[in-house]
Structures are given as structure tokens and as C-alpha cells.
Amino acid sequence: MASHLIDGRTVTLPVQVRQAAVCTASYAVRADAARAVLAYTGVEVAEVLPGKAVCTLVFVDYGDSDLGAYHEFGMTFLVRAPGGGQPGAFVHWLPVDQRFTLAAGRGIWGFPKELAEVELRMSSPYKRCIVRKDGRLVLDLLIKPGLPVPARTPVTPLTAYTHLDGITRRIPATMRAGGSRIRPGGALIRLGNHPVAKELSELGLPKRALLTSYSARVAMSFEAAGRWSGEPA
């Protein structure tokens, strides 16, 4: 098994998340604006409708993982991989509130993690995430959970893409979710005055989300990243 030394601690792959609570809100946005945001990456935005791409905002309360307990927010896009690879989620921005997961995420997979205030309110019926960076509000996102999904989902393969230090990477992962609720719409968002908020605004973020989800019991596994040449990252 591969391992990495991060801040004096050995992290062995695959990295396991044993318990997390996850909220997502997916929006139809302007494909041309999404391409402009991701111009630095080499990935191709997937158009779900003519001229429309999908931007998914996600916030996660990691309760028990190999990288510790922490809060995370993600701004992702549905993309086609360079060279015609498997579609997946390109992770454009990924603030976290703990330093160890920041160092591990950047060093092992090239995730664009940076330190920020990620305040999560998960105990009430409505789930809320407030992100502040450098003392400025980025966004305030409220999720209204929908109808319950009857059973725990099977283990599902996922593909994440990242770009850091001039290298585009593919990260294979798996997820299994339980206690899930899904609905069309179901999100309220308020953007702040941070540059990332401006970026979201310029995507043409609509008032209504395509789909929102909440999963109370999520387990995940993250494998080693690979470069597009097929060489280890």
C-alpha cells in the first residue's frame, strides 16, 4: 500500500472516511462561463443541455476519517476528462477548516484545499453552510432536505479531477450513502463580496437549484491520484 508522510504523520492509501454528513446543491449554469472558470485546467465542461453546464456546491461534515474530523466546502463542475476519459467532478475550490487535511489533500491528490472558516449547522431540519475567507463572506447556503431515499445505496464508484501546480490529476474514489434525502430545488443561497462569490455570480447561478441532496451517513474511500499520462501523480 502506498503511504505519504504529511506533517510528521503517515497516511496510508486508500484513505478511508468512515462517517460523514454530506449536502449538495446542483445548478444549471452558463457553459461558456464555466469554460472560462476552468480554462486553466485542460478539462472539458460537460453540457447537459445546449449552452448549459452543471455546477455543484457541496458541504461536508467529516466526523471520522483518516485525516481527522473537519468541515469542507466544495465548488465542482461536471466535466469530460482530457483525452476522452471517464466523466466526473472537477474540484475547482475546496476550503477546509483544519490544517492537516489541507496539507494531505494538496500533497496526496492535488486537491485545491485552502484554509477558511467553514461553519456548518447540521443538527436542525434545514442544513446550512456559511463560508468566510480572509474575513469576507463567500456564501451562505441553506439546504431543505427532501423525500427520503428508501435504502442505503450500494458502493458507488466516483471520479474526481483536480489541477494543481500545473498538473491535472484523476482521483478514483468510492462512496456509500445512507439516511439520504433528495428533491428538486430546495436550496437558498446568498453570495458575499469575496472573489469566489463574484465567480459564482458570473456563472449565471439561477435562483432555483436543479437538485439538492442530504445524506446523514456517508462512507468514502480515496485511492492514489494519477496523472493524465498514466503515471503516478
The backbone outline, from C-alpha atoms, is globular
Number of alpha- plus pi-helical segments: 3
**Topology pattern, helix = H, strand = E:** EEEHEEEEHEEEEEEEEHEE
Q: Strand arrangement, largest sheet?
A: 3-5-6-7-13-14-16
Specify the structural class.
mainly beta
Radius of gyration: 17 Å
Please give a structural write-up.
The chain is mainly β. 11% of the residues lie in helices and 56% in strands. It contains 3 helices and 17 strands. The longest helix is centred in the middle third of the chain and has 11 residues, at 99-109. Helix 2 (99-109) links the parallel strand 7 (88-96) and strand 8. It has a 7-stranded mixed beta barrel. A 4-stranded antiparallel sheet has the order 9-10-11-15, covered by helices on one side. A two-stranded antiparallel ribbon has the order 1-2. The radius of gyration is 17 Å and the shape is globular.
In short:
The protein has 233 residues and is mostly beta strands. The protein has helices spanning 31-37, 99-109, 195-202, and strands at 3-6, 9-12, 15-30, 44-45, 52-65, 70-80, 88-96, 113-115, 117-121, 127-133, 136-143, 147-148, 156-164, 167-183, 187-191, 211-222, 226-227. The protein has three helices and 17 strands.
